[in-house]
Design brief:
Length: 395
């Protein structure tokens, strides 16, 4: 059904929701076009629901383009509106998206809060998938907070629900995450089993987003068994796909993976080149947490080649970025507290009647809203007596 030819506002919302899910995974630039289309006059009437859904769509666009704060502002406007009218379906999804934004900033405490709220709200949503939608996202937060067993348990429940509903792409993502956890534990047989199941789930899909993630997972496994040539092949293939779909976070992950692979093999020139590419991309996207990660590895490279001047230069930039990121985290904490205050004020005025968006019942929120995961290669040997760099996000 064509969005522009649809006269019924409810149908227009449904089509927009389907397109939103699709574009999150396949065509980020089209999110902006969709948002603008929703703000056009419809028979002389501006429908509030369409306007605020367009804000959500635009927020998702900005976040995936690296303008995280701008995107969060749009999402919060949409969230406030849907919270006010008692639309649990939209509220659940927007809380999940805000969690993704905070995760991308490296603010795991705030991300955890949003995902927990999304899961709580999802229990009252008419969509039967919303009660577990944010579980894999929450599991990835717990992984970063070094709560591995908790992450594993939540991920397994998410996997069970997706398998029951035959949602193969979401199941593949869960298997990939569980494979990563087992790689960290050096349980290679189980990691390989999860990885094979992850790939098998994608046999009947041509979704580039998930294929890139599967290639990354394959690269991680190959690196772990020290097949560096094959690992490099998979990581570069993943990078090519991510550049094709303009997946910002995935592109940064790929640069880091390729650079780290070169670093471990003492190929410092290639490693520095990849880290600088990633740093430049992260700067352009305004992703401070990722800039810190690349700068940290640039310091390590210069340390190993004994270039003290560059090491000091990079280290100063690293410290400046850490300070800047701390300011951002404090601001996020204040914003989050204000949002919680808003919810408290609105609670007594919450409508008891569900909104008209009942048509979302039964529609699975695509795994494009699942965190754009940072499954990086992890090894279990180290030629230098320093903490292993692939675990950097746990710091």
């Amino acid at each position: 059904m064509d969005l522009k030819k649809t006269a019924n506002p409810i149908q227009k919302l449904q089509i927009s929701h389907d397109l939103w899910e699709k574009y999150l995974r396949t065509d980020v630039d089209s999110l902006k076009i969709l948002s603008l289309a929703l703000q056009e006059n419809h028979q002389g009437i501006l429908i509030q629901e369409l306007i605020f859904f367009s804000k959500r769509v635009l927020g998702c666009y900005w976040i995936r383009r690296g303008e995280v704060q701008l995107g969060k502002n749009q999402l919060k406007e949409a969230l406030h509106f849907h919270r006010k009218i008692g639309d649990k379906a939209n509220e659940t999804e927007e809380l999940n998206e805000l969690g993704i934004a905070s995760f991308m900033e490296g603010d795991y405490a705030t991300a955890k809060g949003y995902f927990l709220q999304s899961l709580k709200t999802g229990k009252d949503s008419p969509d039967p998938t919303h009660f577990f939608m944010a579980e894999l996202n929450l599991a990835k937060v717990y992984d970063k907070l070094n709560l591995k067993e908790k992450a594993k348990g939540i991920a397994k429940h998410y996997l069970k629900e997706t398998l029951n509903r035959k949602k193969n792409e979401s199941a593949s993502n869960a298997y990939g995450f569980l494979s990563d956890l087992e790689l960290e534990r050096k349980n290679l047989p189980l990691a390989k089993e999860y990885l094979e199941k992850s790939i098998h789930c994608l046999d009947k899909t041509d979704n580039v987003f998930f294929k890139a993630q599967a290639l990354t997972n394959m690269g991680a496994y190959c690196a772990t068994i020290q097949d560096f040539l094959l690992a490099s092949k998979y990581f570069n293939q993943a990078l090519d796909l991510r550049i094709k779909i303009k997946h910002s976070k995935g592109i940064l992950e790929s640069y880091y993976n390729i650079g780290s692979l070169a670093y471990i093999q003492n190929d410092y020139s290639v490693a520095e080149n990849q880290f600088l590419k990633g740093l430049k991309y992260a700067e352009k996207a305004g992703m401070i947490a990722d800039q810190i990660d690349f700068m940290e590895m640039l310091v390590e490279v210069q340390k190993d080649v004994n270039n003290k001047d560059k090491e000091i230069e990079y280290y100063r930039q690293f410290i400046d970025l850490k300070d800047k990121n701390q300011e951002l985290l404090l601001k996020n904490e204040e914003d989050n507290e204000r949002l919680m205050d808003y919810f408290t004020v609105q609670k007594n005025n919450e409508p008891t009647k569900q909104s008209t968006n009942e048509f979302w019942t039964g529609i699975l929120v695509g795994s494009g809203t699942v965190l754009l995961g940072l499954m990086l290669i992890k090894y279990f040997y180290r030629r230098k007596q320093i903490s292993f760099f692939f675990n950097r996000y746990d710091k």
